[in-house]
Amino acid sequence: MNIPLIQFLEVTRAFGAQQVLKGINLSIFHGEILAVIGKSGTGKSVLLKHIIGLIHPDSGQILINGEPMDTLSAEKRTRFRKELSYMFQENALFDFMTIYDNIALPLVENSAYPRDRIKPKVMTRIAQLGLSGDEKKYPAQLSGGMRKRVALARALVTDPSVVLFDEPTAGLDPVRKRKVHSMIIEYQKKFGFTAVVVSHDIPEIFNVAQRIAMLDNGLIRFE
Prior knowledge:
Helices cover 32% and strands 26% of the residues. It has six helices and ten strands. The longest helix has 18 residues, at 174-191. The protein is globular, with a radius of gyration of 18 Å. It starts with 5 loop residues before the first strand and ends with a strand.
């Protein structure tokens, strides 16, 4: 039996009187690209924040490798969070930092990561994502598509096993959207991470994902 990497079981979540998730059931399997689609405001980003642990369910359970997240030992919970990476909708790059420093940030903030390994790791990711020669530039000096690459390089610099993409093509024209989608496919194949992509790019996202889940009115309507 293939145990899901992450599993939502009847998960509910409300904010005040607004019931956003109304009993979510969803499985995310190792090594797949899963797209969660739906209209704006349906709770797609809320779903991602439950995986990260920024939000906790009002009821129901989230399982990690078959174990309830809320009963995981502190060691297992920390290990799982270290395996996660998040690519924000608006890239969340720091304008006052160079491309190199933006990508290096997760490693710099990790006090346990050896200082002498930071530069080689960052420069490797810069080369892999076609950013060589841009490391001393600032985000404002790059195109929208290049900034997406920087955000992805930062998401991948920690060697995550799971990458969460929150509307990765928001604000891009159709040509750049296709490039970002191609980038997700290419690097998921190269690095083998599990990807969860929140998107409303229909039908384009069908070319990216191996599986689709539609979130509507607080429920997964179909997979």
